[in-house]
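Why does residue order matter? Because the sequence determines the fold. Keep that principle in mind as you read this record.
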Amino acid sequence: MDAAPYDFCRSVFLKLPEICSSYHKILEDVPGDWGAAAKFARKTIRRLNVVIQMDFLPWKYEIKDKDTRATYTIDEMMAFDPNYLSIHEIEITMDEYLEHELTQEKALGRFLPFLCEHIDDKDNRLHLDARIPDEALQILQNESKIKFFVLYGHKDIYKDFLEHKLDTITPLKLVLYRWWEEELVDKIEEKFLAGELTYYIASETNLFIDIQMAVNIINYFKETRGKKEFYLDATKKFNYKQLEPYVHGLEYKFLKDEGGEFTRRIYTLPGTAKKLQIIKHCVPWNSPNNISFNVSH
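Structure:
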């Protein structure tokens, strides 16, 4: 057990809720090999989330255990066994109340490179919600294991970063906020149609799904026989009447809200259980023109 690889421990760790539920017991009372493996994984593995502020002096950071909520300094983090250490989320923020101060030399020379080296290769996310020095952005841009990006801010800050990730990361998950160059829509659509973009939210930006992109999404669903999962969410720039020729032949069911308005259109490939859902969002913080296309298994 002492030589158990990280991948094994991670798999056990992710199954902890199921393990405890199946035995109707707390972890300490789970019997047998599963209990031993789960106790070892929880004691040994360190899954960390990191928040960093580099927009103004003094730079600051916070390292928090994803599971226990314990916090650590950089030196404490680096003292952990690297075989059982993983970084799950990095958030670049403007929060001035983080716990520890950080020098530029330590951030660029040790901290960011260490984080990138230990990114979990299956469960990871990078939030960019503030300005950071070009040197720091370059380190994050060169990191290739992160597949999920949440990008805020003006288009000029992260435009090159986003284009680089669209060119190099597969499969890509992407959440965008605020203002971006509309020309990016073509590149995003191309990425999706290549099967390389599986999750995309841009409902709080100026980006959109027009009729041609909507038609391409429907055709992609048909061509892949519903076998490819995806979720796309943005502002709608078409009306449903325009879609009718392209959903012809699909089985369908429409759901209405209390006011009698259609909020969910569910299309099924004949002879299969594969469904494409087109959902109008009716929550207060979303525009009435926000729409999502979703295939999930």
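The two ends are 35 Å apart (CA to CA).
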